[in-house]
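Much of the work behind modern protein science is quiet bookkeeping, done one molecule at a time. The protein below has been through that process, and both of its lines are reproduced in full.


***
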Amino acid sequence: MSDKFDVIVIGTGPAGSSVATSCAKEGKRTAIIDESDYGGTCPLRGCNPKKVLASVSTMVDETERMQGKGIQEPASINWQDLMEFKRSFTEPVPEAKEKSFKKAGIETFHGKATFTGEKLLTVNDQVLEAERIVIATGARPAPLPIEGAEHLTYSEDFLELDQLPKRIIFVGGGYISFEFAHIAARAGSDVHIIQRGNQPLSAFDPDMVNLLQEKSKEIGITIHLNSSVKAIEKNDTEYVVKADQDKGEVSFLGDLVVHGGGRVPQTEDLQLEKANVEYSKSGIAVDTTLQSVSNRHIYAIGDVADTKGSPLTPVGQMEGQVVTENILHGTGNKASYMGIPSVVFSEPKLASAGLTEKEAREAGYDIKVNHQDVSNWFTYSHINDKPAAVKIILDKETDYILGAHLVGGKADELINYFAMAIQLNIPAHQLKNVVYAFPTAVSDVPTML
């Protein structure tokens, strides 16, 4: 005999939590399931704890670049104190999250969810049934075809390190590697990033990425491009990472080897075949309403869904809102991924929204490109913030902003203004005509356009 619900959500991250809470609020009998601590990757093992560490790294950078300009002593990171501070944000989350679910009338289940039918799940041998099941299980580190891959440390483990090793090697040149590398380097570690291709952070504008690479090298991060890791060995004292380069095999020595090679949808163990749910290595196949193409009882949101959306928390939350409306009201709402901003929280920060210059040209737009080094502008020069640059892609015909790409200490906040313009179809001349507070980073927007 199954326990019947109106809605079951698998995954307690921000996306799944929003769906469950909204459905319960509307009187739907709702259950939520997670095999890990309640809260999901972002609050516990991703965005939030990473931002705590990155913010301290930024403060160290700020004091270093202002030496002799009013600041006398550089700051330094006490890793143990920093981790204790970080845990003050993460440790309360699971209990608080479960309490909030129960207060909302949501029935909570701890354990691994597996499908046994199109509308049926089992959790700890208990059978659950629902007319609507939302899969929001997120992503996991991509398996890497490397001999000795068992020696890799993952991002969630890095965020729990009680001691920071002296020598750290990051395999892969994505978000995780650059964000953690900047933290570790400013905390005193010798850091290497090994990247298979000729450009790390491939989703971002290459001119902006090049500036970030130069700054990374300046603070002591060594970046090895066109280097394919083949094996990781461990001896009594250290790890040996072997990689192929054009000149032959090279070896790197370190005290920690961190997986920075991307993530893949978390579909393992769900037994989706038993629910007639179509999926691939890219995730669960869904239509524009985020409903499974093969089982209309199922929705998928966030990193586990095969969509055009980037694997970002705001994308999952937006998709959660779409699914909630479709479950509650059958409105046929569709997800839109136009102009969603993305930020690498290194220092300087790297930010992007919309199309790159290459993408805009390939799409056939007649474009105007405003590419400027802004490090000598007052916003950046008065705090010695280098590098700082901006590239804005404009449609000559409509004056709409097609893409915005920034590097600099203010990039994470500035990108939101350009994202808003892209998403709301606000022409560039209207942004120019806004009267902004001065002197602020946002007051530079008209000059950037």
